[in-house]
Amino acid sequence: MDVDLMVTAAYGNFLPQRFLDIPRLGTLNIHPSLLPQFRGAAPVQRALEAGVDVTGVSVAYTVLKMDAGPVLRRIERPLLGDEKHPELLEELFGLGARALVDALPDVWSGAAAFDAGTTPQESYGEASHAAKVSVEESELDFCDGELSARRLHDKVRGFAGWPGTKATFAVRKETEAAADAKEVSLKIVTTRVGGEGEGEGDDAAARAAGTVVIRKDCMRVPCADGGWLEITELQPPGKKAMSARDYVNGLKGSVVAVKKTTTS
């Protein structure tokens, strides 16, 4: 087989050496992270979940070890804190395509080869791993003391699209006893981190009871760290995604409380 160069994009499997030996100039991979950070199957999801301030895309040679080859190009993308996984992934691949086109002349000329004109990843710092995301991780636990409102917000952003995030609430009428509350699992689509002391009902009693504060444009959920996660878009079971405003309109006369997940 007469092949000059092979290119992959976020290829999640290992390529055997007999495959890597085929192209005369090697195999390049577009990876949506600033290598060596977030090597692995879910770089964008894990970067958002981690709440990093800057991510990016790398063009690197492929070696037997996952995402560990020398780097030809890196493009940084500062984060504002409201990006979601699907849109950011698409944007990073656009940047990666540009970086690849920019690098190709050096590859053809030999100015950038596997062992010359590239940068070893260790020059950029320590490596980190982006493990594949599982459905079992999608539940939000507002009672976990290690998860701040900010971390929960970042998880919603990182898991947007697939697998998404969900949360379980106990909903009852004001005239009903707490024991009669119905469990409702909602897919959480869009959130923001709320400030302290905003709005009527944001008090110690509501927080201690785990009561969700219903606002006109959001549901303010008390978190174990003392912060508030504001849900602005959600999806009830069997329905399309809707604004929290529309969902809240149907909760008049209801009390909503957080329900601790049993997911470990």
Automatic annotation (TrEMBL):
Formyl transferase C-terminal domain boundaries: 133-251
Family matches, as Pfam families: Formyl_trans_C (PF02911), Formyl_trans_N (PF00551)
SUPFAM superfamilies, per the entry: FMT C-terminal domain-like (SSF50486), Formyltransferase (SSF53328)
S-adenosyl-L-methionine in keyword set: no
GO cellular component assignments: mitochondrion
Record keywords: Protein biosynthesis, Transferase
DNA-binding keyword on record: no
GO molecular function: methionyl-tRNA formyltransferase activity
Annotated Formyl transferase N-terminal domain residues: 2-103
Gene3D superfamilies in UniProt: Formyl transferase, C-terminal domain (3.10.25.10), Formyl transferase, N-terminal domain (3.40.50.170)
Entry protein name: Methionyl-tRNA formyltransferase
Source organism (scientific name): Micromonas pusilla (Picoplanktonic green alga)
